[in-house]
Specification:
single chain, 3-stranded antiparallel beta sheet, 12 strands, disordered N terminus
């Protein structure tokens, strides 16, 4: 039945209550306010205010410590005017389009503040946003069994699904994340549906006891919004990340980030932007760690001339081995031996995933035609260029051949 509620604009003054839910429990910490600019129907101003009596552990972001003054973005309008910690959890892509269509009859001129009102209680991380006066339920809603979700199209809205412009994206991403896992990179757990159309990703924002962890992507930590996720360089990102990691854990963290960036180069992922890297922490007073790898796919399979999302060594072209090594040595502060070992791990991981790729090309002929063959071509080309393998190098077709003819420099 169609929704017959009267269509209306957002209130002139709108309030959302902001809570955090972590190992210290569920508690309200602030209020997010939006008000309309006088005489400008499409200009809204947003400000976040902390409540009184909070501790440092109650901060909603590493970059937003407790203070009396409000946090107010300088960008006005219906979108892009939220503080980064809220902006990072605004739905994007198909889910954003779905919510706008779903509530078009009841919310006029829907902007990011309205989307946050709708989705802020189910976001990744420890921050919860609800309509003023409401209280979120502690923890996360119980999900239906994964087997049901993968088999039921109506339950697949929050999952990674193949799109018309990127056919069989779910298989593509599954294989790239498998390559990451086989490279020894901490990787989000995923499961692919039997028809190859849906990829379920297990949430990684929980500790060993099930308490929610704080999560902030690198756009948020760089004081940028989703609109700026392609801005800057990997060198900039690494510098920002270094400031957020304690010195004792910094070397390991930078090695993990280097491996993730290098893997994206080898698998032809031109979408490794700022929102696809992040940090996890128990609360802002605790040590942060690099989040596992997630959201990696071979974009070159669809866009043959695609480039990297951010620049590396002042270029967005996928690097050769010398350029990638220079980045690892100078920006990530790794030794030549450490860089070589990481690239060797990636070579083995991609070769292992190539065997899986061959299986899915055989099982799904349409995937092979629309993406699989192009992935094979891209991986072969990038193994030669990025890792410096011989021009005659070919991907293995069986597990017994993995690593048998790699010619990587090891010191």
């Amino acid at each position: 039945m169609a929704n017959t509620a009267e269509k209306s604009s957002s209130p002139l003054n709108a309030l959302l209550d902001v809570w955090v839910d972590d190992h210290l429990g569920l508690r309200q910490v602030g209020v997010l306010e939006q008000w309309s600019e006088a005489g400008h129907a499409f200009q809204n101003t947003v400000a976040f205010y902390y409540l009184d009596g909070l501790t440092d552990a109650d901060a909603i972001s590493i970059t937003m410590p407790i203070r009396r003054a409000p946090y107010q973005p300088r960008v006005a309008g219906l979108s892009g005017n939220l503080p980064p910690i809220f902006d990072q959890n605004i739905p994007e892509g198909a889910l954003r389009d779905y919510l706008i269509r779903r509530y078009l009859k009841v919310i006029d001129n829907m902007g990011d503040f309205d989307l946050l009102r709708l989705a802020g209680n189910r976001s990744i991380g420890r921050v919860r946003v609800v309509p003023h006066g409401e209280q979120p339920v502690a923890g996360t809603p119980e999900a239906p069994p994964l087997s049901y979700v993968l088999a039921n199209p109506d339950a697949q809205a929050p999952l990674k699904a193949s799109a018309r412009d990127f056919p069989y994206l779910a298989i593509n991403e599954y294989l790239c994340l498998y390559a990451a896992q086989m490279s020894g990179l901490p990787t989000a757990k995923v499961q692919l549906s039997d028809d190859g159309q849906v990829l379920a990703i297990t949430r990684f924002d929980r500790d060993a006891k099930g308490a929610l962890l704080g999560f902030e992507d690198m756009a948020c930590l760089s004081a940028l919004t989703a609109q700026d996720k392609y801005k800057g360089s990997y060198e900039d990102m690494v510098r920002t990340l270094s400031l957020m990691i304690e010195p004792a854990q910094r070397h390991e963290a930078l090695a993990q980030v280097f491996k993730s960036i290098a893997l994206s180069c080898v698998v032809g992922n031109g979408d490794a932007h700022l929102k696809n890297f992040g940090l996890l922490y128990a609360d802002p007073t605790q040590a942060a760690q690099v989040a596992p790898a997630y959201d990696i796919c071979c974009t070159v399979a669809y866009l043959r001339e695609d480039q990297m999302a951010l620049s590396l060594n002042r270029s967005k072209r996928f690097p050769n081995r010398a350029s990638l090594t220079r980045f690892g040595r100078t920006a990530c502060r790794l030794s030549h031996k450490e860089v070589s070992a990481i690239l060797a791990d990636i070579a083995t991981g991609v070769e292992s995933a190539a065997v899986e790729l061959a299986y899915y090309r055989d099982q799904f002929p349409e995937f092979d035609v629309r993406a699989g063959e192009a992935m094979h071509t891209a991986w072969t080309s990038h193994m030669r260029m990025v890792l410096g393998l011989a021009r005659t190098y070919t991907l293995p077709e069986s597990l017994t051949a993995v690593g048998s003819h790699l010619d990587l420099e090891m010191e």
